[in-house]
Amino acid sequence: MAEYWYFKDGFEAKAREFLANAPEPDLNLEFTVGKRDFVNAGKASAEIKLSLKRIGVEGAILRTVAISSYEAEINCTAHADGADILCNIYSNLVHVIFHDFGPGMKDIEQSMVPGFSTADDMVREMGFGAGLGLPNIKKNSDVMHIISGEGERTYLEILTYF
Amino acid sequence: MKLVEYIKEIKGQVLTKVPHLEEVEVENGYASDLLSDVMGSAGENMAWITIMRHLNVVAVASLAGIPIVVFSKGIIPDEVVISKANEEGIHMISSSLDTFELAGILYKQIHS
Fold first, then answer.
1. Is 3.30.200.20 the CATH number for A2-161?
2. Between A39, A66, A128, which is nearest B64 by CB?
3. What is the ipTM of this complex?
4. Phi, psi of A158 (to 5 degrees)
5. Over the Cα atoms of chain B, what is R_g?
6. Which domains does chain B have, with CATH numbers?
């Protein structure tokens, strides 16, 4: 299994402390997205965005979380056999975890390169598969963490501070 | 610039019934059919010009905060897509012009 970390400048110390402590969230949401289910993919992201809006999170951050979640949701439906999605909301941050059902990533670093894609024709016809999903997640998160390997379930977590 | 001025210029057909169409302002635009590219680049007060007509277009517009989708080449999405756009408050317009022409007219109108 390989691991990938991205921390926006100034976020590493507090994010590592948060992840090590794993505190109880104020609100917890759970979803499942199915393989190739492009009709329902996006519902979890919409629900997460709405929940954050309700607690007064500002528009620019709502957009950031919505984009990173949606890209991840599409990855789970387009490239994996679906996924369990867990969203923990705190007073100062949102922690979204995508634990897919495999088949895992061969090379995480390569998948992070804009333009690299393993998408097939069906995914491309849907308007995805440009190789911008993971780079967009990185661009729209404070912390991004991936654990994956060929034939394994991929674990992706995203932290966004308010 | 008012969206209705653009609709008039491109002889656009308004597909949705989102209220207050006359008051909608367009400040910028983006033309792309790659959804991740759109999410990374388009946003508030923008008109997004595309030939993509799948339901994912509504999800992308809604999540990225894009208020207006303009379909080029006379493309009209399925009723389920239009109805979802109505629910999400996203204006959908169809024009027989192609993406190049639609983007050119929008650019000219915004920057004149």
1. no
2. A66
3. 0.85
4. -130, 130
5. 12
6. 3-111 (3.40.1390.20)
